[in-house]
Design a protein that fits this description.
Elements (H helix, E strand, L loop, with lengths): L5 H8 L7 H11 L7 E5 L5 H10 L4 E6 L11 E5 L6 H6 L3 E6 L9 H22 E12 L4 H11 E7 L10 E9 L1
Parallel strand pairs: 1-2, 1-4, 2-3, 4-5
Antiparallel strand pairs: 5-7, 6-7
Helix pairs in contact: 5-6
């Protein structure tokens, strides 16, 4: 039985499939990136907590598109669509279309326990997410991406800084203390 903390119990009570929703809530509270009627792309969307929260924020006149290798088994509102896809696939961007206001990514590699290997694999996922964001975001759009801290952290952070007018690094309180994850936020795509 996985360790249950306050956020895990709260997520169950509020009908979210995972505690990760509170990380996005903290990011949203601080930065107000997702607005009514926005079109949001959620990369690595399974099990669906970020999808549900983003759907709430954009309202039914907005749209949320999720992409993951794993299926999403929860019931989703009508303005949310999920497609099975690999962020490393060249065809993915064509199938998604453009015009997104916000791209969010909570993707993480299957961890090996080797912190250098895990950080390197996290960096590759982040590079793929940023590459997709570059293609699908509208000018002025925003980007949120989880990365594991490692030797490529600064490289990725600089890549985000180069593409956006504002750039922030954020560690949500709802992240587990031992976690090496941190979020890089790009605001105002150039």
């Amino acid at each position: 039985m996985p360790w249950k903390d306050h956020y895990t119990r709260k997520a169950q009570k509020e009908k979210f499939p995972a505690r990760s929703v509170y990380k996005l809530q903290e990011i949203q509270k601080k930065n107000n990136l997702i607005k009514k009627r926005n079109k949001v792309l959620d990369l690595g969307c399974s099990p669906g907590s970020w999808l549900l929260y983003a759907a709430e924020l954009v309202g039914n006149k907005g749209a949320v598109v999720g992409v993951d290798l794993k299926p999403v088994s929860i019931e989703l509102p009508a303005h949310v669509r999920v497609c099975a896809g690999d962020v490393f696939s060249d065809e993915l961007v064509q199938s998604l279309g453009k015009g997104f206001h916000v791209v969010i990514s909570d993707m993480a590699p299957a961890t090996t326990g080797n912190k250098h290997a895990d950080a390197a694999r996290s960096f590759e996922l982040c590079q793929a997410a940023l590459s997709i964001a570059k293609e699908v975001l509208i000018p002025g759009g925003s980007f949120v991406c989880k990365i594991f801290q490692g030797e490529d952290f600064k490289t990725f952070s600089d890549s985000v800084r180069a593409l956006f007018k504002k750039h922030k690094i954020f560690k949500p309180q709802s992240s587990r203390k031992a976690s090496k994850e941190i979020y890089i936020i790009g605001i105002g795509k150039k």
